[in-house]
Amino acid sequence: MTAEALLFVFMWLSFLVLWFLLLWSYTRSVFSITMPNILLASMILFQFVGLIFLFFQLDQYRASEVTDQVILLKVVGYTGICITCLIFGFSLARRMTGYLDDVGQGKPVMEVDFLAASKLEHSIMFFLGIISIFVLYRYFAVVGLENVVILNALNLVGSGNSNLTALRSAMSNNFEGDFYWYDLFMRKYLTFYSVFLYLNFLGSSKKRWVLILFIAFFLITLLSLASTGEKAPVLLFLASLFVAREYVKNNGRADGKKIFALFGALMLVASIFYIFLMNIDNVYLGLLSTLSRAFTGSLEPAYHYLELFPSEIGFLHGSSFPNPKGIFPIEGFLLTYEVWNRVHPEYYALGLQGSMPAAFWAEAYANFGPIGVVVVSILVGIYVYVLNYFLVRVKSRALTVALIVFSIFHFRSLAETNFSQYLMDTTFAFFVFVTITALTVLHKGRIRLRQSQSQPRPSRHDYFPQKGQ
After folding, report:
1. CA pair distance 12, 152, nearest whole angstrom
2. Would you give the end-to-end CA distance of the chain in angstroms?
3. Is 464 within 8 Å of 253 (Cβ atoms)?
4. What is the pTM (predicted TM-score) of this model?
């Protein structure tokens, strides 16, 4: 084993031990469904575990792209520092606010204060759902049904010889129009509304009309999410339904066995996607492609960020941050696009436009260097924890739980995308506005809060439930 390999193993194991010790500072249980826990799990699973496959060249799909072990050691170091500082931020926020108490105080949420939606809430949400369907229809009209990736992949339209990569680019990065607003309604809101309907079905004595409505919007949402041929949005949608059920049925905690079963099921679904979209011959190769994309897909961009900054591109000093209407005296730098163009100039020359987002620490590094990784990670940890604390203070209804589930997956994306898009987070603000509007109208200007209960410091046995618990 080379010196670089020994150093990699030492760093990798040392960080794991450190994080296990630090977990005691902010959480009661690693199985609690909270924004900090889900973000931390995503960072470790999809940003840290995959480093083994990259460093030892076990991923055949990326072995030719990621070859410099010195840069990979830097990726290990910065990823480790990021996660450590993230936990430190969680701990600081916990000291300011308190532990994220079990939402049901020992009982399932549904038995404590969970209320299914009223007719008024249903009316508001359904109205926005209809608007979202119209937006989806309009999107397909602009793109053209003959150019929809998933329909071409299934040979429902087209000649069967379509360039799926070019079609995917035309439906997203090269879309002729403001894709953000289309995406907000036809994907994000439909996902939010489907989770809302599912929660109502769970809490409304299984009313048939709620089930019918949920099935209809579930299928429409699947079509919308799968239309561009992207696998991750579909998998995250299915995972959000699982999280919603566990949140209200299992005292805000997820069962370990169910998590592994869910992971296996999602990997199988993703493998089937790969078989149809990438013309792979069998499930085994599809599974390998899925594992490669899951565990190393967002690590390769981080590698290229360190490769390019600051040797080829100087530190940006905030140039990648949003600058609406040019109000700040900085020249914008489209970071994810520019990195992709430099890594894949052959595709760019053909007129294809892709993007290369990485974990949030990579953008912090590209802008401010090593100090940016430390400071931004701590601030992100504080923000995510405090936000979750205030969300769980609101009395549980189907609508508020749907917002919590949406927030969990919205901020989980920090594990694989830039943080600057959260500086002016109009997406999150939109769903908060919808929720507050519905609740204030329902309760005549008041939002009911749950009384916080003081909780003792957790014991070691609270982290991993013992047999029989």
Report:
1. 43
2. 43
3. no
4. 0.89
